Each structure stands twice: as structure tokens, then as C-alpha cells.
Amino acid sequence: MSTATLSATPPPPSPRTARRTGRMFALTGAVVGVIYGYDTGSISGALVFLSKDFHLTEAEKGLVNSILVGGSIVGALIGGRLADALGRRAAMLTVAASYAVFVALSALAPDVIVLDVVRFLLGIAIGISIVAAPLYVAESTPARIRGASVAAYQVATVAGIVITYFVNWGLSGGGHWRWMLGLSAIPAALVLIPLLRLPDTPRWYVLKGRTERAVEVMAMTDPEVDPRTEVAAVEAALAEESGGSARSLLRKPYARAALFVVGLGFFCQITGINAVTYYSPQIFEEMGFTGNGQNFLLPSFVQLASLAATVLAILIIDRLGRRVVLLSGIGTMVVMLAVLTAVFGMGELHGTMTWVGFAAILLFTAAFNFGFGSLIWVYASESFPAQLRSTGASVMLTADLVANLLIAQFFPSLMAWAGAARTFAGLGVLALGALVFAAVTAPETKGRQLEEIREYWGNGGRWPAPLAPASAHLGPDRAETVPPTTTT
Questions:
Q1: Rounded Cα–Cα distance for residues 479 and 378 (Å)
Q2: For residue 23, what are the contacts with CB-CB under 8 A and spacing of at least 6?
Q3: Which of 58, 91, 299, 397 is in Cβ range 3.0-4.6 Å of 280 for a Cys bridge?
Q4: Residue 286: CB partners within 8 Å, gap ≥ 6?
Q5: What is the pLDDT of residues 189-215, one digit of tens each?
Q6: CB 233 within 8 Å of CB 225
Q7: What pLDDT score does 117 carry?
Q8: Total Cβ atoms within 10 A of residue 139
């Protein structure tokens, strides 16, 4: 239906009501982000105790982690279509309900086979949430707070990982791994309440031809704009975005951009960040720390540093530029992995060297969140035209999750077979490869218009000359900085 045939625009709510509605969208997305972060990290503590109860081998430990990531790949592949077919809100309801059910079932698992099946299903829900939650937040909030709202979701995800380590520490004294896994069922069930009361996004209503409803929701969430004009802009954007396919990414002028984004997504995970997220208690035990107090509390401080690094990157990324943030983050990861190789290479650790190892893990994790973590989705959103943006992001996410799967499955076996020093040396080589790759391929896109960035990729990785001043490129298609969803 054309906006020209719409009935009279409904009277907008008061600014206070609209602000409350917009914040409710953002808050609901943030809560889902916290639950996602918690469910991703909760296995790190639970694995220490359930592996003893179920008598797991190193390969079986890896499978408990990797099967979640395998499910996430499936969920991410279907998440976009599900969100388009059923709606962003319906996808979020599915995610929240699935979180509540599957984490509760994982806490009740009688054996490792049941646990693996349930965690695979939980992984599917996580994969859907990676796609649906940022989409729901970004499409539901007014433009003036959209960046902060999406950033809040990403920060909430890291906060969820922080919370899981403090919970693991609190429950470690009794070895309560079932509580570690199952506690997030409570907020997952509670978040269903506001989701049932909120509408879907204006963009989805337009996608389904429900233009009148789109105008109503637009007026409800942002009384400072003309809802008809905004909905017309959404219709125009949707028309522009049609027709993208994964096959297009393999042809010029997009192949170079696709190689860059997919490579960045793969290196983002293969350098080992989730080895720390999933296995940090074991890593600290290998360093020489003893007792559950240290091995469960220390990872909490590591994740607090990651949270601070994420916030810092969000604050400075548009001031210092993308390349500076990305390369300094990866470079610091390389140095810290070299330090860890040297520390573990000394054999039995004690005293000062154990704390040197802890500092290296903390700085490695913070550096990841500062560099890779803050830039991966920015580059994914900037590198393709509108009709290929979601396809490119999906391909990058798939590469990211495949690398995550490899780390989750094989890291404990590598630690047992090759030893910690060689394992971290291997990660260091991969991180050095990532640094070289980023230095050669990553452009500086700060202040560039999206059309200009696309010209860069179409021009063989060279900026067209003469360059217009950045101040002249503040049009409506300017790229928006969007921090990551699936990178920790």
C-alpha cells in the first residue's frame, strides 16, 4: 500500500511516552544480550565440575562447547529468514522462550548425550538471537538514540559474560554446575513479558505491506519525525535492498570486499578469544593458580577489562579511525600471545610468573574487544552496497562461527597433546597472520560516505582521486558505527 493512500496519521503520543517506548525496545534487547552473553560463558565454570560427574575426555569437553557453536551456525543461517517471515518481535519471543526452556533442560541433563542435544538446540536459539536482537533494536529505536541503543546491546552481551564468571565463582564452592547453567532461565522467562506488549518494527510492517501499522508504530516511537515521510523512506530503502545474493559476492566489484570481510570474520575467532571465554578456569589452573576462588574469580576481572575496552572503543572509534583501533588491538594480541608462550614455556609456574600470565590473558582479551570486537561489524556494514549488506554480514558471520567451532572443539585437546606453550604459540602465529592481513586489506573509512567506500573496493582497493573533504559527506547514507554481536 502506498503512503499516499493512507488514512490520516494517528496523533502522536507525548514525547515522554515515546521516549519510554523507545527505551523499552532498547532495554528488552539489552536484557536478551545479557542472557546471550551469560549462556555463552556459563559453560566455562560448569565444565570443570560436569566433566568430573560425566567422566569426560578432552575431546568430549570440546564437543560440549563446540556443539553449541554448531547450533549457532544453524540458527544464524535461518535467523534472517525467520525474522523476515514471522517478524522481528516473533523471532525475539522465540529466542527468549527457547533460552528459558533449553537452559533449564541443560541444568537437568542426566548425561552428556542429553546435554549435547539440548546445547545444540540452545545454540540454534543463540544463532537466531545474533541476527534478530540487533535487528529488532536498530529498527525499533529513533535515529537519535539508535547508535547508543545498538551499542548498549553489544555492551550488554559482554556484561552477560562478566556476570557468568561472578556467578560461577559464587557457586564453585559446592560445584553447583547445574545452577551455573540454569540460572539464566529466569530472566529469559521474564523478558517475555515486555516483548508480548511491544509491537514489531516499522520496517517489518512495511516489508509485509502493513504500511498503516508501520506509520502508527513510527509515530508511537518517535514523535519528532513525520511518520509518513519516514515510512516512505523505509519503503525506498527496502526497494534498494532487494536482489542481493551470495553469488554476487564472488564477482567484481564485490569480490575484494567479500574476501576482506570473510577473512576478518575468520581471523576474529581463529586467534583464540573464545578459548579464554570457554576454558579460562583450565587455563588459569595450567598457569599455577590453585583453588576455585582464584580460577573462577580471576576470569571475572578479565571480562571486566573486556567490558571497559569495548566501551572505550565505542567512544573513540570515530575519532582515531578504524585502522588505528583495529591494528593496535590485533598487535597487542600478538604481543600478549608471545608473552603467554614464554610464560608457559618456563615449565612449572609460581610466584611472579603466574601473575604475568594472568596480566597477559587480561590484556589479550581486552585487546580483542578493543580491536576485532569493536570493528568487525563496522567493516561488515560499510563494505557492501545496501542490496548486499545483509548477505555480506551473514557470510562474515558464518566464517566467524566456523572458526569459533574449531577453537571450541580442538583447544582442550591441543592443550593436552601439544602443551600450553605450543598451543599459544600457534595462536600467536595466527594472530600475526591476522595483523598482516588487516594491515594490507583494511581501509580507513572514518568520515567516508558509503558510496565512496564502495568506490574504494570497486577501484581495486584504492581511493578514487580527487578525494572530497570528509565534511562534505554527511548525507543520509552515512555509515553508522555498529559494534559486534557474536565476537566474544
A1: 8
A2: none
A3: 299
A4: 344, 415, 420
A5: 998 998 888 898 888 898 888 989 988
A6: no
A7: 96
A8: 17
Interhelix angle 420-441/255-270, rounded to 10 degrees, is: 160
DSSP character string of 282-343: HHHHHHT--SHHHHHHHHHHHHHHHHHHHHHHHHHHHHH-HHHHHHHHHHHHHHHHHHHHHH
Query: Which of the listed ranges 313-317, 388-392, 399-403 does the model predict with the highest average pLDDT?
Result: 399-403
For position 100, what pLDDT does the model report? 94
Note whether 475 and 376 are within 8 A (CB): no
Point out the least confidently predicted range of 123-127, 318-322, 334-338.
318-322
281 and 46 Cβ atoms separated by less than 8 Å = no
Query: Which three cell numbers, joined as nine digits, stand for 63?
Result: 564437543
Given the C-alpha cell 517489518, which residue does it identify?
204
Q: Where are the alpha helices (DSSP H) in 345-447?
A: 352-370, 372-382, 386-418, 420-441
- Cα(285)–Cα(289) distance, rounded to whole angstroms? 5
- Contact between 40 and 130 under an 8 Å Cβ cutoff? The reply is no
Q: Which three cell numbers stand for residue 118?
A: 539440548
pLDDT at 176 over 80: yes
| 121: amino acid identity, one letter | L
Which amino acid, one-letter code, is at 284?
F
pLDDT per position as a tens digit, 62-91: 899 889 989 999 998 888 888 888 888 999
Q: H/E element holding 34?
A: helix 15-41
Q: How far apart are CA 89 and CA 140, in angstroms?
A: 10
Global pTM reads 0.77
Residue labelled with grid coordinates 533449564: 104
Residue 449's DSSP bridge partners are 478
Phi/psi of residue 448, nearest 5 degrees: -85, 145
Residue 58: all three cell numbers together: 578432552
